[in-house]
Amino acid sequence: NAGVTQTPKFRILKIGQSMTLQCTQDMNHNYMYWYRQDPGMGLKLIYYSVGAGITDKGEVPNGYNVSRSTTEDFPLRLELAAPSQTSVYFCASSSSKSDHVYEQYFGPGTRLTVT
Amino acid sequence: EDKVVQSPLSLVVHEGDTVTLNCSYEVTNFRSLLWYKQEKKAPTFLFMLTSSGIEKKSGRLSSILDKKELFSILNITATQTGDSAIYLCAVDLFGNEKLTFGTGTRLTIIP
Fold first, then answer.
1. pLDDT at position A104, please?
2. Which fold has domain B3-110?
3. To the nearest 10°, the Cα dihedral for A109, B48, A66, A20?
4. Given this model, what pLDDT does residue A45 score?
5. Closest residue, chain A, to B103 (C-alpha)
6. Contact across the interface for B98 and A45, Cβ inside 8 Å
7. What architecture is the A4-107 domain classified under in CATH?
């Protein structure tokens, strides 16, 4: 099992550009999450999904969009990049049983710089 | 609003010292508390605690939960430079599909 994979590892964007951060998991987890982590800070939830076709906003969804067409994939889209979106982005997944969120498994992260 | 607070924010100790990291929470419908270690990349899972007073242990790391006083501690004995990391705690709530994370404690071990 590869676990949770993310691409790209690094990216530099100009202000106003768009990009998609890819996330794939091969553990058949139904829950998936996108977090951002700013320097010296904890994790802030951007969006999450409890299954294919279902997504919901987290704490900081503005400027981002997600989709979940399959169990495995949960891409994060930035439409008009802004310097405030410079951060490290982590994708995570977890299984669930009776609505209980088990431990989350994290991808290696994408370091994004917007200049 | 659900809150998870970790202290201290940053800690620098010498190799061999023992450290105690704190995580307190103010949430509704608490179900479990999780600890993660984050080195240079992604967080990795350490412990999940659901019951008060039962210590979880893994090598030199141990953790315990107090559901009456609403906090957990993570102890690391005989610290090594490889313990240098950010330690994150997160709370899982009934009826909620997501974890609420604290801001983390940055631990630095000096050789």
1. 87
2. Immunoglobulin-like (2.60.40)
3. 10
4. 92
5. A42
6. yes
7. Sandwich (2.60)
